[in-house]
Model the fold of this input.
Amino acid sequence: MRFWVAFNRTIPVEVIRILSADSDWRVRDKVASRKDTPGDILEVLSRDTHEAVLSSVAGNPRTPVAALRVLSRHPWNQIREKSLRQLQNRSEA
Done:
């Protein structure tokens, strides 16, 4: 059920915050991919143990620069490339 709640576009930030700490990585992954997830939550999720969550954080345009810099040194190529792309896009803006 929590997984489907994470897909709801109208949930308040308080619910997003609760879902970001869910034990199911799929719920955290969905939270990390939402364009309305606040930066402080993405900062916390940037230290997640599941690589799918980290990949979503790295691809989210709202992820704080400090978190992207850390993720840009991740051993998994997909996470590293997404982070570097986000950092490059922001420096060009």
